[in-house]
Amino acid sequence: MSTARRAHPLLQNGAGGDDGDDEREEEEEEDGDEEVEDEAAEDDEEEEEPRLKYQRLGGSVPAILSTDAAASIAVADRMVALGTHNGTLHILDFQGNQVKEIAAHTATINDISFDADGEYIGSCSDDGTVAISSLFTDEKLKFEYHRPMKAIALDPNYSRNYRRFATGGLAGQVLVLTKKTWGGYHKKVLRDGEGPIHSMKWRTDLLAWANDAGVKVHDMKTDRGIAFIERPKGIPRPEFLLPHLVWQDDTVLVIGWGTSVKIAAIRTDLSQGLNGIQRTIAAVGSEKYVDIVGSFQTSYHISGIAPFGDLLVVLAYIPDEDEKEKKFSTSVTSRQGTAQRPEIHLVSWKNDEVTTDALPIHGYEHYKAKDYALAHAPFSGSSNAGGQWAAGDEPLYYIVSPKDIVVAKPRDAEDHIAWLLQHDCHEKALAAVEAGQGRTELLDEVGSRYLDHLIIERKYAEAAQRCPKLLRGSPSAWERWVFHFAHLRQLPVLVPYIPTENPQLSDTAYEVALVALTTNPSFHELLLNTVKNWPPTLYSASPVISAIEPQLNSSSMTDTLKEALAELYVINSQYEKALSLYAELLKPEVFEFIEKYNLHDSVRDKVVNLMILDSKRTVHLLIQHRDIIPTYEVVDQLLHTDRNCDQRYFLHLYLHALFEIDIHAGKEFHDMQVELYADYEPRMLLPFLRTSQHYRLDKAYEIFAQRELVREQVFVLGRMGNAKEALSTIINKLENIEEAVEFVMDQHDDELWEELIRQCLQKPEMVGMLLEHTVGNLDPLYIVSLVPDGLEIPRLRDRLVKIVTDYRTETSLRNGCNDILKADCVNLLVKYYHEARRGVYMASMNDEVHGNRVDDGSSRASERSSSVRALDIKSRTRCGARCCLCFDPLPIQDISVIVFYCCHAYHLSCLEGGLDLMRSNSNQDSDNGSDDEDGSPSGESRMRCVLCTTAAA
Question: In angstroms, what CA-CA distances link 591 with 314, 620, 643, 702?
Fold first, then answer.
């Protein structure tokens, strides 16, 4: 697959050369960047995320390389060893800080090797020496070979396995030295006479080296050769392009030489090779053999190679055209100052390139392929080829040039997120952060950049929708974006997502949001919903009200905005203003609002709107509070409204309800009410006409005449005194004799009877009906006598029979009632007479005084009682409170008084003189031994009123 070549800016942690080199490098980097940008523009659509990131090694490295040049490097688990051209071995930590310095050689250090435990380090140099030093003790060994030594490999178990190591150089011998038990070293030559040894790597029991002939693998346990892999054809001599060996694991050897890459797998049986490639090379008689499981050619020179999980990291040197034409026929590999940047290629075993990164190495234009080296830190983990390396499971790659060291390592989650953001993949970046990749703090940065991207793309709605997820519970972030949206005039799209709690923002933020919704009618619905949903304690309603009120009389004012303003008035305790808007908007809840806030006085100028909303409830409200809502104001509003409504019907409902509660409350509008009744409820006219005294009869009659309301006309005519016309209307229009008779009876006018008879005689049928309904009121014979001869009256016989029968019945009932009445009168008079003959004895004043004697205040009470008694007697007797016989005043001391029911009063002594006469009369009356007429036994002495008895006699 094709990939875009990227130039990576490096983080410089230290000076890497003199100022002139830096300036030259910056200029060259700018030129290179322009070239890379051009290439990237061509393949932008195919660009994939890089797998590696780069950083210059800082610490002590810039200072070391400022006076020396790097020649070789090796990496252990805990440290890095850097060999220079002056023969010094620098032990560094992973940040480049020098830990130890070893003056091991006097010339260029060609190769460095650590044991597996990282306790010993071996190096070889062009000065023909091999040095082995302990990193934690003072133990040092040095071997002289008098020929430049190019490769060294310590036994991985050097400290535990007889201090064994292998080395080789221009002498062409592969030497294995083993420490003897009794001292000294045993030297063994594994190979000789095949040319200089250029590279050597030891893994477990396997030792691999490269010479002019090719690569050989030797089993150190069995001391047998396993395989020989020939040198690729067509590549220059090793002194110009060195072979590079690296063990990917215990059984896989990667070989990079010139433009060829081979992957050799060590097998222990005869099964099929990896990836379906059959075994190609095997050592005769050996249990182990080698399969070439991967092989490909490159278009560049290989300056280093290392494993990257299932991929390979290749340090590539790009030859110029002259070098390609010469095809390595000469020793000149590049012209001075024209070399290209080295590159890191990440490729598969089938040479499928994943990424390609151009490295801005200091002074790269002056270097050759063999001036570069690539080393990697050993790691035991495995890579995730489809994603990122796990923390702590990432290898480090050191790209070495004479004056610069660059560290490459797999991009972590944060690098992945940064790349996604750089390439506008904000959703993927956000998903990666939320999945736990990278630091939690990245969410704020990713969110902010995502929102910035959406704003730049003018995707305001999407940006607003993302805010709750991206800004989370940060009040400051929310407020910043609220004001940013406000600056962009896009705040309405954010309002539905602004939080009201967790977090709660400043009141200014909420006020700005609400004010922004007042500017455009399309936002008014959102404004209303927001005002209803947001707690009123979050903001002050005054700024929002001030923004809306200037629009009240403009074309931008909508009903929704009015309702929102009403809600704000309520929040601001301006209930009367809110009521005006609710009434104007005809909101059904306005009645509950009036009751809740006791706004009955404010209803006075809103009658029409309330009537339109709910006439029944409005009438009830107006009647219930008629003391504060005058009738004339209600009528005036209904009469002069310009609203499109049936104001006369509303007026009828109101006046009717008012009349039922208080007949005098709207008396000045009774003339109007007559007309309203005639239009909307004629059945109520007669009750109203009979009850009210405040309407004009002539106007009412005119109304009834126009609407042909006959009975109402009759009533008004009767009220006007025009009884004859009223009677004529009943007879001629209603043709209802019963109503005519009832009307005549109500008028109590005998002339109307004559008029009734006269008008009925003109219609035979009316005469018959008149005969049926006048029984008890007129003499039927009188009516019959007035009937003209020859006038045919329908059903006359039956009607006469009924008249006679009804007359007899009526006469019988009348006589019976008279007899009963007379008998009742006689009986009551007799009873009254008997009661009136009985006297009432009243004790003397002395008796009362002695019978009611009390303390010192008794005389005063006696006087008061006497006065009251005298007044009582005077009020209940005739003759002015004097005795009817002696005419002296009744209240005389020590004389009792007798008062009869006829109201005549006597002194008891005055009546005693006439007792004999009354007794003699009583004896004469009772000779037969019978009872007295009043029911008392005969012979009993009784007092009787002298005056009444004398008059009766």
Answer: 85, 11, 20, 40
pLDDT digits (tens, 9 = 90+) for 60-83: 999 999 999 999 999 998 899 999
pLDDT(386) > 50: no
Chain centroid, CA 884 distance in Å:
104
Q: Which residues of 426-444 are buried (b: 16+ CB within 10 A; e: fewer)?
A: beebbebbeeebbeeebbe
What's phi and psi for 591, nearest 5 deg? -70, -45
Distance, CA of 759 to CA of 217 (rounded, Å): 152
Length reported for the chain: 953
CB contact at 8 A, 277 and 232:
no
Instruction: For tokens 């962009």, name the residue.
Output: 488
Spell out the residues 6+ positions from residue 10 whose beta carbon is closer than 8 angstroms to its own. 54, 55, 56, 359, 360, 406
**Residue 543 predicted with pLDDT over 70:** yes
CA 64/CA 519 separation, integer angstroms: 68
Picking from 734, 755, 735, 758, the residue whose alpha carbon sits closest to that of residue 744 is 755
The SS3 call for residue 301 is: strand
Residues 822, 823, 827, 833, CA torsion sign = positive
- Please tell me the distance from the alpha carbon of residue 132 to that of residue 141, in angstroms, as a whole number: 5
- What pLDDT sits at residue 323? 55
Lowest-confidence segment of 228-232, 421-425, 928-932 by average pLDDT: 928-932
Q: Cβ of 694: how many Cβ atoms within 10 Å?
A: 14
Q: pLDDT tens digits for 602-632? A: 998 899 999 999 999 999 999 999 889 999 9
pLDDT of residue 940: 42
Nearest alpha-carbon partner for 13 in 64, 58, 63: 58
- Pairing assessment for the beta strands 129-134 and 140-144 based on DSSP bridges: antiparallel
Q: Are 289 and 282 in contact (CB under 8 A)?
A: yes
Distance CA(123)–CA(132), nearest Å, equals 7
Tokens of 768: 């018959």
Q: Provide the pLDDT for residue 37.
A: 45
Give the pLDDT confidence of 693-736 residue by residue, as tens digits: 898 998 998 998 898 888 888 888 878 877 777 777 777 777 66
Alpha carbon separation from 608 to 602, 604, 663, 674 (Å, rounded): 13, 10, 23, 22
Decide if 590 contacts 583 (C-beta within 8 A). yes
Tokens of residue 320, six digits: 């110029």
Query: Is there a contact between 879 and 906 (Cβ–Cβ < 8 Å)?
Result: no
R_g of the chain computed on alpha carbons: 67
- Counts for the chain of helices (H) and strands (E), in that order: 34, 33
